[in-house]
Amino acid sequence: MNEYDDVRSALRHRRRSERILNLFDNTPTQSVRRASAQLQISRNAISRTLRADDRFAYHYTPVQELLPIDYQKRVEFCNWYVNAVERDNLFSSMILWTDEATFTRRGIFNSHNSHVWAHNNPHTTRQRNFQHEFRCNVWMGMLHDRLIGPFFLPDRLNGESFRRFLSNDLPILMENVPLQFRQNSWIQLDGCPSHYARQVRNWLDEHCAHRWIGRGGPVFWPPRSPDLTPLDFYLWGTLKNKVYSTEVISLEDLKQRITNSVTEMQHFQECRTVTNSVLRRCLACIDVQGQHFEMRH
């Protein structure tokens, strides 16, 4: 190959790279496969060009819908939390974060990431549609470095049944928590209807005084803010991955898996890290004026 051929090859390579980069500039969600079909360029060549330009494929992050009226409420809560931690650096360890989640027979199953390694195809299957469904409603709490629960609530939770839980069952769940934490802890509730029921708010006012966070509480919990509570941004996803690692066969099996998984997670060192991370999340939320924020590790 002479010098002239080298120049022609370099020009072809540059033009091809420009076509590829222009396509992804205009449609950054384009897949390599479709780009290959559209440009009639091999997938490997497209991938090499994108890597050479320091471009990477990033996944979407699912987020809770926020309304414009939510932004200020989120900032107000985050400012309150940051100020409370600044006044008392142990404050973050005194909040009992709580939530409920529904676990079903179907659970979660990602076929793209689930494999069976074998010399020959075992033709493994996993059922997805069932004639007989079952579910359970699970309450959990996180207090500093420990998990509280699980407790299985009625499938249809209302204000009175939740008040009975707070009055009769929560104290039993908290028995192993040191007295200092029980006497000084705050409790956080989201804004679901059973939490906002009058009998629940009356009970909280009587037994928790000013130390509760929630809809209608002395400290208002901002709606649509799962990115600020450890159970939503950490616990439920981690727990469900453990529970649904294999197919669930019965309601009793489902409940036992939840209980066993929580017991196993009690030994993790992550709980303290997760609850402490709420401060960083609040600061990030303030920086973007209450809108969606991205946590950087």
TrEMBL record:
It comes from the Eukaryota. One of its GO terms (molecular function) is nucleic acid binding. Residues 96-254 form the Tc1-like transposase DDE domain. This is Tc1-like transposase DDE domain-containing protein. It comes from Ooceraea biroi (Clonal raider ant).
